[in-house]
Structure to design on (659 residues):
């Protein structure tokens, strides 16, 4: 009797479960930009989600930080993925906390092809998670995530580096200089 | 005595007749050998004062693009072009100007981040461009063919970059002096609040490499406006006045033919000059080339075209409806003859009008002579348009306008492929007015629209509802 009750309870839990992390990704909802695991050298982030059926989605963008004691530190995609793998095999792993950039957006698509797009400005360097959940009657039916690293723009390459291998060469340069002085 | 007086009188009369004959001979020889027609001597009201546009006002870029990096851009408004010209002028004042050919990769690296460039839809040589704007040139500019893009990037402050799409070559002009204007203009435009554009490839990802820009969101003051075509059906006086502006007051050697449907044709001689005034307001003028075999440059031909347009209605509707013209396209040496075909477009409220049926003004210049002129302008209420100029609304998302009309591209326009494959073929997306009308339709509405350009086609969609309005096959 006890086993019977436990089994029924488990089935009920599975059927009514809304635990997001166990929901599969929606084949009709694809995070197009940024690409998964990419690094963006900018302070602006463009989110583009392709929706290929009439659906309602919720898009949340969070910054992921590692928690050590009561402090929070920047992290990398690699660290997050390693921690996830460790948890799956029951090993101890770092704790990560998500900080929302803004309140989640609800996007309703009434067509068989549409795009959710949003631009975030002045994004500080760090690791960000874009989570897209498909909603049906307020319940999450699918979920997908994409992690992206935002980094500061690298030192700009200089003109000297760009034009050091110019095809024109010294001869052409001299020819042009002479032309500009003496004409054709 | 009397006999002597008679003889004197006769001699004097003979002398006068002789003088008159000699002068007449000289004049006749002058007309026949000097290739001058009597028409040129006529004082006609068609020579009355008219305004001709300055060439500089027409040689303007289709876009001024500011690159912010990471495939994000801004588009500068047209009024910034004059500032950019000043910057180019300052650049060219350098004591030394050196022209160097560079690679596409080098060009793109400089333009990728913190750059400004002007993009032209037609071909114009750098020398002619500088001549039109009174900018200093150097013989080294002759090595550069035509300019399709001219730009400046902060990474290479000593360089002005040029792209020639005809030869598919890239150049840079190197200076030795300091030139700050372009840098200051670029900085101010980057900091200015204005819509952000991304490339289509950025929105769609995957294998889409299209670098056409579309905004994430766009506030526009585009509003539909009604128009009436210039009607000449059974308006003999109006038609006569138009004809006089081409042939003079007296219609010497001019035949008038009236078609059954109301079209009026004026013909000089055996068809050396023909004027057709259609009932739907379209005016066509054709003139046989005199075949002087002279080669006249682009700017001179454009000036001739503008003079002709100025003398025949300018860029205004017959009721004075004002349009801002722009040079839309230039064809060179068509049908084996030396000359140009200038196609002009029109703007209202700083937005371009796209006509599904025909371009509003076309002029063909053959060896500096106007050999073809087409005019199809409409009247509209300036006041109504002006009143709504400050009313802004958010346009339908550009990327979703494309996505939601994928079936239209396929089913109506006959395009094939996935949405991403079709999107990869887009060459332009911009807000403007679309005029879609049936044959013979005399009035209608210029619709506020997204204009989507492909190679050989353009499509129009309502800018606020994204409903398709029509499309055009471009020859």
């Amino acid at each position: 009797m006890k086993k019977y009750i436990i089994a029924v309870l488990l089935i009920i839990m599975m059927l009514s479960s809304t635990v997001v992390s166990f929901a599969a990704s929606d084949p009709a909802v694809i995070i197009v930009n940024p690409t998964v695991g990419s690094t963006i050298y900018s302070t602006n982030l463009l989110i583009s989600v392709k929706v290929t059926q009439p659906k309602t989605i919720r898009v949340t963008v969070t910054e992921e930080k590692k928690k050590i004691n009561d402090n929070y530190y920047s992290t990398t995609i690699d660290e997050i993925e390693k921690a996830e793998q460790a948890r799956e095999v029951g090993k101890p792993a770092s704790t990560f906390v998500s900080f929302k950039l803004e309140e989640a957006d609800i996007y309703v698509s009434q067509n068989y092809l549409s795009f959710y797009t949003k631009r975030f400005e002045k994004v500080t360097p760090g690791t960000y998670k874009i989570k897209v959940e498909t909603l049906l009657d307020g319940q999450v039916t699918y979920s997908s995530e994409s992690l992206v690293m935002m980094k500061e723009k690298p030192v700009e390459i200089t003109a000297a580096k760009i034009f050091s291998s110019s095809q024109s060469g010294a001869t052409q340069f001299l020819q042009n200089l002479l032309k500009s002085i003496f004409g054709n | 005595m009397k006999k002597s007086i008679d003889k004197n009188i006769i001699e004097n009369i003979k002398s006068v007749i002789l003088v008159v004959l000699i002068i007449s001979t000289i004049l006749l020889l002058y007309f026949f050998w000097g290739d001058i027609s009597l028409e040129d001597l006529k004082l006609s009201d068609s020579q009355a004062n008219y305004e001709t546009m300055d060439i500089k006002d027409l040689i303007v870029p289709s876009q001024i693009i500011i690159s912010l990096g990471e495939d994000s851009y801004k588009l500068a408004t047209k009024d910034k072009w004059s500032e950019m010209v000043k910057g180019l002028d300052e650049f060219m004042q350098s004591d030394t100007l050196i022209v160097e050919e560079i690679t596409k990769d080098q060009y793109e690296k400089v333009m990728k981040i913190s750059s400004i460039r002007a993009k032209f839809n037609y071909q114009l040589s750098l020398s002619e461009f500088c001549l039109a704007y009174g900018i200093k040139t150097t013989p080294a500019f002759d090595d550069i063919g035509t300019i399709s893009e001219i730009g400046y990037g902060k990474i290479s402050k000593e360089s002005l970059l040029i792209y020639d799409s005809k030869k598919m070559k890239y150049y840079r002009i190197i200076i030795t002096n300091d030139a700050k204007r372009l840098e200051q203009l670029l900085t101010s435009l980057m900091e200015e609040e204005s819509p952000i554009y991304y490339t289509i490839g950025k929105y769609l990802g995957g294998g889409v490499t299209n670098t056409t820009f579309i905004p994430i969101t766009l506030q526009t003051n585009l509003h539909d406006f009604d128009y009436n075509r210039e009607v000449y059906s059974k308006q003999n006086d109006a038609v006569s006045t138009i004809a006089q502006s081409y042939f003079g007051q007296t219609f010497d050697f001019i035949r008038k033919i009236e078609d059954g449907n109301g079209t009026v044709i004026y013909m000089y001689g055996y068809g050396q000059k023909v004027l057709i005034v259609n009932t739907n307001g379209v005016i066509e003028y054709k003139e046989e080339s005199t075949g002087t075999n002279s080669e006249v440059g682009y700017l001179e031909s454009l000036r001739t075209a503008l003079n002709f347009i100025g003398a025949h209605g300018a860029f205004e509707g017959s009721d004075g409806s004002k349009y801002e013209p722009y040079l839309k396209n230039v064809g060179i040496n068509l049908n084996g003859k030396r000359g140009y075909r200038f196609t002009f477009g029109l703007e209202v409220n700083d937005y371009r009008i796209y006509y599904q049926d025909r371009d509003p003004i076309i002029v063909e210049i053959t060896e500096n002579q106007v050999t073809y002129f087409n005019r199809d302008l409409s009247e509209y209420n300036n006041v109504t348009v002006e009143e709504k100029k400050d009313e802004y609304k958010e346009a339908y998302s550009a990327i979703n306008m494309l996505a939601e009309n994928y079936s239209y591209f396929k089913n109506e326009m006959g395009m094939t492929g996935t949405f991403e494959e079709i999107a990869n073929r887009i060459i332009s997306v911009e807000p403007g007015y679309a005029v879609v009308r049936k044959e013979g339709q005399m009035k209608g509405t210029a619709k506020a629209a997204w204009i989507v350009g492909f190679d050989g086609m353009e499509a129009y969609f309502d800018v606020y509802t994204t409903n398709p309005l029509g499309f055009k096959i471009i020859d």
Notes: The two ends of chain B are 88 Å apart (CA to CA). Chain B touches chain A at residues 68-70, 72, 96-103, 106, 109-110, 113-114, 138-140, 142-143, 154-159, 172, 196, 198, 202-206, 216, 397, 399-400, 403-404, 406, 419 (CB under 8 Å). The first strand of chain B starts at residue 63 and ends at 69. The CA atoms of residues 205 and 420 of chain B lie 9 Å apart.
